[in-house]
Automatic annotation (TrEMBL):
GO terms for cellular component: endomembrane system. PROSITE patterns: AMIDASES. Residues 1-53 are annotated as: Disordered. Residues 1-37 have a biased composition (Basic residues). Residues 73-495 form the Amidase domain. InterPro entries: Amidase_CS, Amidase_dom, AS_sf, FAAH2. It comes from Bradyrhizobium zhanjiangense. This is Amidase. Gene3D superfamilies: Amidase signature (AS) domain.
């Protein structure tokens, strides 16, 4: 831990960088719910309780719309929180205070003129530093990427801005966003606000740490092997990894197109303290962008299943050593769902081991062929250790075997889709072990294999299926958050989020306890 402490101090002393740089809308059921939540209130209505940085995104948007608070006052409150708490966390690594305040003044002028406002008008958010933000380098945790200047905003940034959101900073990510732990030679280590001795997760660790601590109401992240759901678990917040194709993605700064399977297994998404904020952010982020050929104009809500919705509590494979507190958290989540009208049964899900192995084989072999040599030239020894560990469980495939693995992916997806016909929602663990230390993937290749295969198998496996998966916190154990995962069929994020909201209603929002602890 000596190395961790040293990095923490270095991160605290390092000043954040400041930028000098100045569609068809879907009207589905979720959109109507989001607009209803942020509908203009009487100007005399009371402000939400507590300081503005503690409000939810839904509350913040409504307060700005009603005139209970200005966008400038809102942004100033979040910037004050960021400047007070970020030095100890190193979650936000690019401070956009100057342009955020300019945007807030513009938002207030726009509201004064009247007319329609976006769903997130004046609402402070953060962006992960691995998508294009116009005029800035897309570092992705790698110092050598300083010349990759974004020619335009990525689709997710563009959609957030179009909805009126105000970006107050960019959040940390590991090198090439390829680790489950957030540390890099450019910005250093990001700490978990609950406890500096456990990881904030990765690769969206900066995003998770920031929003949990009260920096921004919504944090953007992305996920190819758990990079939204793992940080949500570690930091005690909520998220949705959407179906592939739900939220458009593109980086104009990239020097080459992404490989096919990497694109098909990755997703952009939101992290937030409240499930309602995740739902609202999903609606905003998922608007069309012609630069992504894989974007799908699917409705945000589908038909409600008949009768009490059946939930499959996933049986955990015998070779996974489950901590008793994880078992207890899953049972608590199941009880919350039962009390909310769901019918929960413990059943075996379709070949979770084979699904995970397919994910590992496909992503590893594609990376080895397309990216490994160039990545290893510009990355740290810690990256080499972590990446080497990730490869230990993968089968090295020739062309025929790789094509067979990609074909097997279709069979896995079909089996899960048929499973959802009987059980529309699956309740599964995020990890089966306590949250590890902040740099535990540099211990040994065996430890990395143990984490990905033995502990977070139910997270990474879902990426190869392209399915939506929500995470919601359930409880604290020894002062550290434990979350569970809700998985649904393709383009049924609504079912996963409904179940997550039912759990949240009874388990509460853990961030409130965190703020008391941090104070």
């Amino acid at each position: 831990m000596a190395k961790t402490t040293t990095r923490k101090k270095a991160a605290s002393k390092k000043p954040a960088k400041t930028s000098n740089k100045k569609g068809a809308s879907r009207k589905g059921i979720v959109a109507k719910k989001a607009k209803k939540a942020t509908r203009l209130e009487p100007a005399s209505s009371r402000r939400p309780k507590g300081p503005a940085w503690q409000w939810s995104a839904v509350e913040t948007a409504a307060a700005i719309r009603s005139g209970a608070i200005s966008a400038v006052e809102t942004v100033e409150a979040h910037l004050e929180r960021m400047h007070a708490i970020n030095p100890r966390l190193n979650a936000v690594v690019v401070d956009l205070s100057e342009e955020a305040l300019k945007a807030a003044h513009a938002a207030d002028r726009q509201r004064a003129k009247g007319g329609e406002l976006g769903l997130l008008h004046g609402v402070p958010v953060t962006i992960k530093e691995n998508v294009d933000y116009e005029g800035r380098p897309n570092f992705n945790g790698v110092p050598a990427n300083e010349d990759l200047i974004a020619p335009s905003d990525s689709p997710v940034v563009r959609n957030l801005k179009k909805a009126g959101a105000i970006v107050i900073g960019l959040t940390n990510t590991p090198e090439f966003s390829f680790r489950g732990f957030t540390d890099n030679p450019l910005h250093g280590l990001t700490l978990n606000p609950w406890d500096p001795n456990i990881t904030c997760g990765g690769s969206s660790g900066g995003a998770g740490s920031a929003v949990a601590a009260g920096i921004g109401t919504i944090a953007h992240g992305n996920d190819i092997g758990g990079s939204l759901r793992w940080p949500a678990h570690c930091n005690g917040i909520a998220t949705i990894k959407p179906t592939q194709g739900r939220i458009p993605a593109f980086n104009g700064s990239a020097t080459a197109e992404r490989p096919m399977l990497a694109h098909l297994m990755s997703a952009q998404g939101p992290l937030a303290r409240h499930v309602a904020d995740v739902r609202l952010a999903l609606e905003v982020m998922s608007q069309r962008d012609p630069r992504d050929p894989w974007w799908v104009p699917a409705p945000l809500a589908g038909p409600k299943p008949k009768g009490p919705i059946k939930v499959a509590l996933a049986k955990i494979p015998d070779d996974m050593d489950v901590d008793p507190q994880v078992t207890a958290a899953l049972r608590h989540a199941a009880d919350h769902l039962e009390r909310s009208g769901y019918r929960v049964s413990e059943v075996e899900v379709p070949d979770i081991n084979g699904v995970w192995q397919t994910w590992c084989d496909i992503i590893t072999n594609e990376t080895v062929v397309m990216q490994e040599a160039s990545m290893l030239k510009v990355t740290s020894e810690d990256f080499h250790k972590a990446w080497g560990g990730m490869k230990t469980k993968a089968n090295l495939l020739d062309l025929k075997a790789w094509m067979q693995a990609t074909a097997a992916r279709n069979g896995h997806i079909r089996a899960w889709q048929l499973f959802f016909e009987e059980y529309p929602v699956v309740l599964a663990p995020t990890t089966v072990k306590p949250t590890p230390g902040p740099r535990e993937d540099t211990v040994s290749p065996e430890r990395v294999r143990e984490i990905f295969w033995g502990e977070i198998r139910f997270i990474s496996a879902i990426n190869v299926l392209g399915l939506p998966g929500a995470v919601v916190p359930v409880a604290l154990h020894d002062g550290k958050p434990i979350g569970v995962q809700l998985i649904a069929g393709r383009y049924r994020e609504d079912l996963a989020l409904d179940a997550a909201a039912a759990i949240e209603k009874r388990a509460g929002v853990l961030a409130h306890r965190l703020w008391e602890q941090m104070a």
